């Protein structure tokens, strides 16, 4: 879980000044409710970043991040 948070911060650092950055997070249904709490809070300090979350399961999150479909793949399988 910490890795997901760190990855989110690293991927969007410095992008707040840009017009808009769109990120897709897919994966873990366990972490999905947490992402839905984190995303609005993150958006308050990074208004140029739009994050969409999808509860697709850990395996899908990993494969979609690896293939480039999603920028964030969440998994609780490790």
From TrEMBL:
Signal peptide: none annotated. It holds the Pfam family PBP_like_2. InterPro entries: PBP_domain. Residues 21-77 form the PBP domain. This is Phosphate ABC transporter, periplasmic phosphate-binding protein PstS. The lineage of its organism: unclassified sequences, metagenomes, ecological metagenomes.
């Amino acid at each position: 879980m910490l890795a997901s948070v760190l990855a989110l911060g690293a991927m969007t650092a410095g992008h707040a000044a840009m017009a808009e950055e769109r990120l897709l997070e897919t994966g873990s249904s366990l972490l999905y409710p947490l992402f839905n709490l984190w995303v609005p809070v993150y958006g308050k300090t990074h208004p140029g970043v739009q994050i969409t979350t999808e509860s697709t399961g850990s395996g899908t999150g990993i494969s979609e991040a690896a293939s480039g479909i999603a920028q964030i793949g969440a998994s609780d399988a490790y």
